[in-house]
Design a protein that fits this description.
The longest helix has 14 residues. The protein is of the alpha/beta class. Helix 2 packs across helix 3. The protein is globular and about 45 Å long. The strands form two sheets. Strands 2, 3, 5, 6, 7, 8, 9 and 10 form an eight-stranded mixed beta sheet that branches. It has one domain: 3-Layer(aba) Sandwich (Rossmann fold), CATH 3.40.50. Bound molecules: S-adenosylmethionine (SAM). S-adenosylmethionine binds next to helix 3.
């Protein structure tokens, strides 16, 4: 299935630092810890998931875990705006289930159309919502909800969670946020579910 390079946390942290210095939208100087990745992804029913989308994969710490857990016939669309990260993901992960798109998540509707995808089961997001304008944030949450199947989950991990619960609740039923104080930097995790009301 997947032919991935060996994950080296120190080398990966140096790449985050380098990419962050060239592009502040990278928003982190270190990859999310593997414990946090497992915690976020524990909400995913991998036996049922057919299409998963990742917003802001960076160096691919979630991407690799998702591919390790996914069914052989499922798909993962990873949308990364930073050129060096997208290039590195393409060259370091060789798996036919993965498509790396080098673009902004703001284009989610067109990206899914380009990949002939009508419904997504899970969307995992690390993109920095606080960096987007209010209009972009709202549109992204709306488009994300529309892309998901009824009951589908939007899993969001953020350094700055200010206003996020309110924003997500415009299109999702939002669970109580979980804190990850041991991640560097500390993160807040939200599980947002597309409800029947949002689906109709
Ligand atoms: C906080 S980092 C998370 C990286 C990685 N998923 C992790 O957990 O270590 C945020 C990532 O989102 C990417 N990003 C920021 N804005 C984006 C956008 N509008 N569209 C796609 N990716 C974006 C950044 O380049 C970066 O890789």
């Amino acid at each position: 299935m997947a032919e991935n390079d060996k994950y080296n946390p120190l080398a990966m942290t140096l790449r985050y630092l380098k990419n962050f210095l060239g592009d502040r939208n990278v928003a982190s100087i270190a990859p999310t810890s593997r414990a946090t990745v497992r915690r976020v992804c524990s909400a995913i029913d991998f036996a049922k998931a057919r299409v998963i989308v990742e917003y802001g994969p960076g160096g691919g710490v979630f991407t690799r875990h998702l591919l390790d857990c996914m069914r052989p016939d499922s798909r993962l669309i990873a949308i990364e705006k930073n050129g060096p990260f997208a290039k590195e993901l393409r060259s370091s992960i060789n798996d036919p289930r993965l498509s790396v798109v080098c673009d902004g998540v703001e284009k989610i509707v067109d990206i899914l159309k380009d990949h002939d995808i009508e419904e997504v089961d899970y969307i995992i997001s690390g993109v920095p919502f606080s960096f987007f304008s209010e209009d972009v944030r709202r549109q992204l949450v709306k488009d994300t909800s529309e892309a998901l199947v009824p009951g589908g989950l939007f899993l969001v991990y953020q350094v700055n969670p200010e206003g996020l619960a309110e924003l997500l609740s415009t299109a999702f039923e939002v669970g109580k946020p979980k804190r990850e104080p041991l991640n560097l930097p500390p993160l807040c995790i939200y599980t947002a579910q597309k409800t029947a009301a949002a689906a109709s």
